[in-house]
Specification:
Elements lengths: L1 E10 L2 E11 L4 E5 L6 H8 L7 E6 L5 E4 L11 H6 L18 H11 L16 H15 L3 E5 L7 H12 L4 E5 L3 H7 L2 E6 L2 E6 L2 H36 L6 H17 L24 E12 L2 E12 L3 E5 L6 H9 L6 E6 L5 E4 L13 H6 L10 H10 L16 H14 L4 E5 L7 H12 L4 E5 L3 H7 L2 E6 L2 E5 L3 H8 L6 H4 L21 H4 L6 H33 L1 H5 L1 H37 L1
Parallel strand pairs: 3-7, 3-8, 5-6, 6-7, 12-16, 12-17, 14-15, 15-16
Antiparallel strand pairs: 1-2, 1-4, 8-9, 10-11, 10-13, 17-18
Helix pairs in contact: 3-4, 7-8, 11-12, 18-20
The structure holds adenosine-5'-triphosphate and magnesium ion.
């Protein structure tokens, strides 16, 4: 229903892509992927006719309608949420002869709005009283209601929390039309797509299957290309040797000449060396000034939105250097807690005490307001120069390099940046003068995988205190040292990393555990339970341990110790085997070992966390 032929687009001297050809049929479900700034949103704009291609043609089949969700929010007027959701199709018949009123429209719209997280009493409120993210949800509802033949969605999951995301994903699996979805969410693409379009390095590559199939196929293609490249280079080198040796000899001159020609021909058809995807940056971000040991103390805090009470009697302590992730069901109050800590919403009761020398910094989901659109990328960082931080241009560029802005990128106006580039800039701005209490709500939204790595890299060595909310299991796994489960106005701390929490919460899978609403799965206080730096008041009332408890705990600790060292030995063994040259030669073996290693590493992480928690508990009990 849609055909692109040899499409090319440049901005100034920078060619975004060329020779893009594509056919989209009604049954296609494509994921459009590629690094931040590759031109995905631009390609959508071309398809929608909002911008013109420099070359090539784009044709729609007659009668094919489409729906489009932009990456960033569109302005709204006075209409209600329900109005937006139903405005994709006409409510009223055009004239009296038309009896074809769609009575199912409104009920359907309401159902979809509810699925996307709106409450019944939101339907008739004006859209402009909602945040940008919620307006986007209303527009998403409109698209689902009107059911166009082709849905084009630019990072739709950015606006959703996990519950709405799961609902939406499920809804789309049953969607009757075609889909082209830009997304960085691997799981989402896996569930929905039967084809992946990769826009990268100026070309569009098509792969059959879902995202995992794409990754596998890509690996295979890369290996093939690497092998081909090696062979070609070998042949070229061989020919070159001949030319070098005999080129000067009169008797051999003509043969050398012909070999030289052969080299030229080979070079013409030679494949490029497969390039590495991740350009590692080892830039160290500045450390924040050190705060006092006590960072924050919330006492008996009350917080309600209208009559909806989120927290009645909230107690929470944070200590320097903690790295806490907040998990729990949607609406449990994770963002609210973060906002209370950041002092962006005033508390309605109780107290919020900031420790000495604590500078909080808050990174909200709608990070757009964190960058200055009329300044260039470089100016956006340079303007943050302070008396203490006399940033030179070189340093500013190093910071920006840490967030993957290279060379001329830094002279771009912030207004033309892609969604991911804007997020990276906002993060760079935040971390130039890092606050020592960092509060982040979904910082990886809009970011592609290399950018998430850049952020992880910036935060890994961060010596301040970090509290964040994220849907990104990888991000959480790498950074969080404590998991705080927020549910029904209560906080349950798990003093271990995410895997420790997973094990304790017995969640079905890593993602489900993010929104799990259990209350009774918390670790029993009598067994190897974590002691936490930040406890809810009731967690403190632990009974004095009996001698047999202590004995059991001791056995647990030594068993876990043994398990950890066994796993470590195994890990060392596999690593050594992987490094052996003969393993490289045997592809099957290499893959097998690699897989085994990742299993061991996972087990080791979990076991270490468990051991740490048990050992901490034991030492505290011993002290008591
Ligand atoms: N008017 C413009 N002038 C110059 N450069 C532009 C202009 N508009 C966009 N760009 C650049 O073109 C590139 C592609 O932008 P685009 O928004 O299409 O990327 P994207 O693939 O959607 O990225 P993301 O994943 O971050 O959303 C970006 O580097 C952006 O800065
Ligand atoms: Mg984009």
């Amino acid at each position: 229903m849609l055909t692109l032929a040899n499409v090319a687009k440049s901005y100034g001297t920078r060619e975004l892509f060329s020779e893009v050809s594509l056919f989209v049929a009604r049954t296609d479900r494509f994921g459009l992927v590629g690094p931040n700034g590759a031109g995905k949103s631009t390609l959508f704009n071309l398809i929608l006719g909002e911008e013109q291609p420099d070359e090539g043609t784009i044709e729609w089949e007659r009668g094919a309608d489409f729906g489009f969700l932009p990456q960033e929010s569109a302005p709204v007027g006075d209409e209600t949420i329900l109005h937006i959701a139903t405005s994709g199709k006409k409510l009223e018949p055009e004239n009296d002869d038309d009896y074809d009123i769609d009575w199912t429209l409104e009920p359907r719209a309401k159902k979809i709005l509810a699925g996307l997280g709106f409450r019944e009493d939101d339907f008739l409120k004006q859209a402009k009283s909602f945040s940008g993210g919620w307006v986007m949800r209303a527009h998403l509802a409109r698209l689902l209601v009107s059911e166009p033949a082709l849905l084009m969605l630019d990072e739709p999951t950015n606006h959703l929390d996990l519950e709405a995301l799961l609902w939406f994903q499920d809804y789309l699996t049953r969607y009757p039309g075609g889909l082209v979805i830009i997304s960085h969410d691997r799981e989402f693409l896996n569930v929905l797509c039967n084809g992946i379009l990769e826009l990268k390095g100026g070309t569009l590559n098509k792969y059959t299957g879902n995202y995992d199939d794409y990754l596998n196929e890509k690996d295979a293609r890369k290996e093939q290309q690497a092998a081909l490249f090696k062979n070609q280079q070998r042949e070229i080198a061989h020919l070159q040797k001949f030319v070098d040796r005999f080129g000067a000899k009169a008797s051999m001159a003509s043969r050398a000449k012909s070999k030289e020609k052969q080299i030229e021909r080979l070079k013409d058809v030679a494949v490029e060396e497969p390039w590495e995807d991740l350009k590692r940056i080892n830039f160290r971000f500045p450390q924040p000034p050190r705060s006092g040991l006590k960072v924050m103390n919330l006492k008996n805090v009350q917080q309600a939105y209208g009559d909806h009470v989120v927290y009645r009697d909230l107690n929470f302590e944070v200590e320097r250097g903690q790295k806490i992730v907040l998990v729990g069901p949607n609406g449990a109050g994770k963002s609210t807690l973060l906002k209370i800590l950041a002092d962006v919403i005033p508390i309605q009761g109780g107290s919020r005490d900031l420790g000495s020398n604590v500078y909080p910094g808050y990174f909200a989901q709608n990070r757009g307001d964190n960058v200055k659109l009329d300044l260039t990328v470089l100016e956006n960082v340079m303007e943050l120069r302070t008396a203490e931080n006399q940033l030179t241009e070189q340093q500013a560029r190093a910071v920006l390099g840490g967030f993957l802005f290279r060379k001329d990128d830094v002279f771009k106006k912030a207004s033309v940046l892609s969604g991911g580039e804007k997020s990276r800039l906002a993060l760079a701005r935040l971390l130039v003068n890092p606050p020592n209490l960092l509060l982040m709500d979904e910082p990886t939204t809009h970011l592609d995988i290399p950018s998430i790595d850049a952020l992880v890299n910036a935060l890994k060595n961060y010596e301040g205190t970090l509290i964040f909310i994220s849907h990104d299991v990888y991000f959480i796994r790498t950074l969080a040292q404590t998991v705080l489960h927020v549910h029904s106005g209560r906080l349950t701390p798990y003093a271990g990393n995410y895997d420790y929490y997973l094990e304790k919460s017995k969640a079905a899978n890593a993602r489900a555990a993010l929104t799990a609403g259990f209350t009774d799965a918390r670790p029993k206080q009598t067994t190897a339970s974590p002691t936490t730096k930040s406890q809810t008041p009731d967690a403190k009332q632990t009974a004095k341990p009996s001698a047999s408890d202590l004995k059991k705990l001791r056995t647990d600790v030594s068993k876990l110790e043994q398990k950890v060292s066994e796993l470590e030995a195994k890990q060392a063994e596999i690593t050594a085997a992987l490094e052996a040259p003969e393993t490289y030669a045997d592809k099957g073996k290499f893959h097998h070992l690699n897989k085994e290693l990742s299993v061991i590493v996972d087990q080791l992480t979990a076991a270490t966390a468990e051991w740490e928690a048990a050992a901490t508990r034991l030492s505290e009990l011993d002290k008591a």
